[in-house]
Specification:
Elements: H1 8-21, H2 25-38, H3 49-56, H4 60-73, E1 88-92, H5 96-107, E2 111-116, E3 126-128, H6 131-139, H7 142-145, E4 156-158, H8 159-172, E5 176-179, E6 182-187, E7 198-202, E8 215-218, E9 231-235, E10 240-247, H9 252-256, E11 260-264, H10 269-279, E12 283-290, E13 293-300, H11 302-307, H12 318-321, H13 329-343, E14 363-367, E15 370-374, E16 378-383, E17 386-392, H14 406-426, H15 431-445, E18 481-485, H16 488-507, H17 526-535, H18 550-565, H19 573-578, H20 584-599, E19 629-632, E20 635-638, E21 656-659, E22 664-667, E23 681-685, H21 697-706
Parallel strand pairs: 1-2, 1-8, 2-5, 8-17
Antiparallel strand pairs: 3-4, 6-7, 9-15, 10-13, 10-14, 11-12, 12-13, 16-17, 16-23, 18-23, 19-20, 21-22
Helix pairs in contact: 1-2, 5-8, 5-14, 14-15, 16-20, 17-18
Amino acid sequence: MSQSFASPSLYAHALFDRFVASQTCKEVQQNFAELCHHLQLDSQDYHHFYNKLKEKLNYWKAKELWQKIDKRASHPDYEQGKPCAKTKCLVLGAGPCGLRTAVELALLGAQVVVLEKRTSFSRNNVLHLWPYTIRDLRNLGAKKFYGRFCSGSLDHISIRQLQLILLKLVLLLGVEVHTGVNFKGLLEPQASGSTGWRALVHPESHPAASYQFDVFISAGGGRFVPDGFKIKELRGKLAIGITANFTNRRTAAETQVAEISGVARIYNQKFFQQLHTEMGIDLENIVYYKDDTHYFVMTAKKNSLLKKGVIKQDSSDAEQLLAQANVDQEALLQYAYDAAQFSTSHKLPDLEFALNHVGKPDVAMFDFTCMHRAEYASLVRERRGKKLLIGLVGDCLVEPFWPLGTGIARGFLAAFDTAWMVRNWGKGVTHLQVLAERESVYQLLSQTTPENTSKNYPAYSIDPSTRYPNVNLSSIKPKQVRRKRRSTETDSLRRMVDLLSWCQKHTAWCERVQVKDLSQSWRSGLALCALIQHFRPKLIDMSSLDENDAVHNNQLAFDILQREFGIEPIMSAGDMASSKEIDQLSVVLYLTQVHNVFTEAPLPKVPATDLGSSELCYFCHQQLYVLERGSAEGKFFHRSCFICQQCGTTLRQGGYTFYPDTGRFYCEEHSEPVEEKGEEGELQQADLSTGVQVWTISELIPLCINVPILFNMLH
């Protein structure tokens, strides 16, 4: 105990104050661990942790927080933590939506573990909050953790501060949060039945690797969507966004500068014309918020960026247009600086860029021409008699449309909806019913605005009927949820045989390599190096490798695959070389990534004189010549064979539905085939698509800022 405190209780009070005031992720975790150690509390005793903490921390500041948490926990929906007392949940991602979901799962009584690959919270960008989210966070004690939270008329908060608030809250509720852990995939239950569903993580020795769960919630961001989920893409004309964060010194002069909640060209043409005339900057809209930083976000016109030298060369491909090599970073900084100065009438003194997590000016340019939305929000997998409920929340469910500030509002709504789904799961509701009800609610999410959700904010709970007026929880029937017929053992065996054959085929050229299996044959590292040289001969030279130096060989291969293709090693090179038994499943998962990288590379061009060297048609299995070849979903076929497998109608690119489990293609009219049943399978929503609408995002943005309902048309 510190000598500066007269009693253990006073020291506990000081530790609690330090925990509450922590301003980094690392500080929060360290101060929480020290508080638990001092109070002799086991933070992994999730069932009793919160109540024991209240008993041992008799401190008036803490009691104010307990009152808010207890009021929330006493809601009838939670049934005193009984519905999910036997439920174990893994939440991927410690962003605001992942942590908000974890809060609700903990209140339902579940054991909750959160995995986050980052070790720090460094996102300065500011989030717009709808009225209900402000009330929700206040009721959970947000102002106790962050005194500036939505003071006065403020309706926004930085992502970093919101994460810190929610991190502190989940820790107090007994949730385990592990940072610096990379999620690599799901591990199926073993054939012996000794284990349930687990996560493949890196580092593989991390305690989270042994955690077994029956609910998996992905809040890993828009770029991570678990296998089995189908993503819809909304395409529009080019739309380029720029975000910029400047240091907020909180001086009197800075305080007096008015925020810009959303200025669009259509409503203030004079402002944008002056900006263009005086500064050469051509924008569609601009937003300015004050929080930890001075935060600006704007939509810039391409021609303006080209003329100002921000973009070096024009391109019709958005990815190439905004590629790092095609952007002059200094010109981008000047563009953002000038826009910020002009829009605030040069009243922000001594503007300096805030720094991002790598110590560089926090300015980013991004393309939001395409937006993505998961076609369904949940599914159930069953392997060897053990079921896993999987749900999506956050950006991997629906990408936010920043001009409307929908990210956190819809993200929290989805978190509540997901918690309600897990509650039903824990209470033993049939799996088809759980999925059908979740999808019935999900249909409403993209249509939500502050105007069409319930105004009775005090009544909001995880029960969807408290938030969505006239919600129909049975708009999708259980019979519409189809069971993907799958023989797990046969399917897994087939995949492994195919992978082994592929490896043997592409290493056969090397006499020193003999691939006989998917475990021991890879110990020396030569097989992996041979694969790399076959596909990328410039990256490696097999002749220089010593078969007896397994550590060097494996390290070389691991380094190349990680540097060139982003594939992280499954274990250290030393472990690979010295382990008595190499885990086959880990090797399979790793080699599958290698296979995908090399097989997804562009196919070599076939000489015009060689028209018979391609594969067979996917449908008719007859010889397929290059000049008559079509492709979809990685399959190659005669264009005349690309027909609906039910009605025979000729299919067109973008106008079909593909079911990977059966390998069949259907037209949009027959996108829901007859339900198939099997003993074990994957429960997934039927294709509920009603067609594709393409809108011009850049044209809708100005309208959306002041007429939010228009954005519903995008979905």
